[in-house]
Amino acid sequence: xxxxxxxxxxxxxxxxxxxxxxxxxxxxxxxxxxxxxxxxxxxxxxxxxxxxxxxxxxxxxxxxxxxxxxxxxxxxxxxxxxxxxxxxxxxxxxxxxxxxxxxxxxxxxxxxxxxxxxxxxxxxxxxxxxxxxxxxxxxxxxxxxxxxxxxxxxxxxxxxxxxxxxxxxxxxxxxxxxxxxxxxx
Length: 185
What we know:
By secondary structure, this protein is an alpha+beta fold. Helices cover about 25% and strands about 20% of the residues.
């Protein structure tokens, strides 16, 4: 097991990472929101032992972050978290405390519990100047824009109610973004 993964935590029947992200490498091309042709829903990767390097190196944030309990597994929470290196152009003038941030993709309706916990986690990350990017999954083969939350939410006070209200506005803005066809580079 990789040292950077939470011990005794495995993917189980979750295969969100085989569907949600874009894979645009020389060895593999997969559009957003489309299940990888090598994956069987509920079973997993049919070429696991020989899967491409891009797949071998990727684990979602739930596998990396012990603070996210078992209920945060992406297929259970509708929240897909990725640890991402964000280049300086992703920051839009924001100065980050760390070059690695979190990209949070909302996959569907969130439970009230997960909405509250997500808001608390985002507030903590924003307060610590850790980059947080939010997006909402689009229909198959399409993607929505992503918003860097730090410059939007940093000005709000640490009052939980005010922050939650501002975050709800941002969630709606992400959901309202038009989905665009992804074009491989």
